[in-house]
Amino acid sequence: MKVIETDRLILRWLSTDDAAFILELLNDPSWLRFIGDKGVRTLENARNYILTGPMDMYSKLGFGLYLAELKDGRIPIGICGLIKRDSLEDVDIGFAFLSRFQSKGYAYEAASATMAYGIEQLGLNRILGITSKDNYDSSRLLEKIGMTFERIVILPHETEELKLFSSTF
Questions:
Q1: Cα–Cα dist 105/156, whole Å
Q2: Which letter, b or e, does each residue of 100-138 get, where b requires 16 or more Cβ atoms within 10 Å of its Cβ?
Q3: pLDDT at 17
Q4: Which of 40, 54, 96, 159 has a CB 3.0–4.6 Å from the CB of 45, allowing a cystine?
Q5: Residue span of the signal peptide, if any (predicted)?
Q6: pTM above the 0.90 mark?
Q7: Which of these, 134, 132, 119, 135, lies nearest to 167 by C-alpha position?
Q8: Rounded Cα–Cα distance for residues 71 and 113 (Å)
């Protein structure tokens, strides 16, 4: 199901048909460095990740992480969407793109449109963003889409300090 369309991208619900792409994305060097190893090593692991993550969130909340694909050729390049974590008080924006599609403005395009969707379609009045302390590109992107650094947090059952950004409307 298509959710958001921008000049160059379509953001749509993930399905188990996207398992090969998710397998590649979750093993991309930038994902492993900044988000962490989710242990997804097979197509079956990837299908399970989609079912228990994004698809579960769609059914419970009506939103989640979306597949970002190029309009031209429908090539999957990343994910971007809104997530409700039990450990954070508000919805947060999440994004990750394959290394070969980074630094081309796609993440900004997807994240900007996702923020607008959250405000205009979902009626959110506050959106968060979290990133590892050394992920300078993601920190800059969160600031570019209108977020400000709020504080350092450690999520439950984790040890890594993360930078928490927010935007209130």
A1: 32
A2: ebbeeebbebbbbbbbebbeeeeebeebbbbbbeebeeb
A3: 98
A4: 40
A5: none
A6: yes
A7: 119
A8: 15
For 59-119, the DSSP string reads: HHHS--EEEEEETTT--EEEEEEEE--TTSSS-EEEEEE-GGGTTSSHHHHHHHHHHHHHH
Distances (CA, A) of 117 to 64, 70, 108, 123, 131: 12, 19, 14, 9, 21
Instruction: In whole angstroms, give the CA distance from residue 67 to residue 55.
Output: 12
At residue 95, the pLDDT reads 98
Q: Which domains does the chain have, with CATH numbers?
A: 2-168 (3.40.630.30)
Give the pLDDT band (50/70/90) at residue 44. very high
Determine the Cα–Cα distance for residues 38 and 3; give it in Å rounded to an integer: 26
| R_g of the chain, CA atoms, integer Å | 15
Q: Is 89 left (phi over 0), alpha (psi -120 to 50) or beta?
A: alpha
SS3 128: strand
Pairing type for strands 162-168 and 2-5 reads unpaired
Distance, in Å, from the CA atom of 54 to the CA atom of 166, rounded to the nearest integer, reads 22
pLDDT, tens only, 74-117: 999 999 999 999 999 999 999 999 999 999 999 999 999 999 99
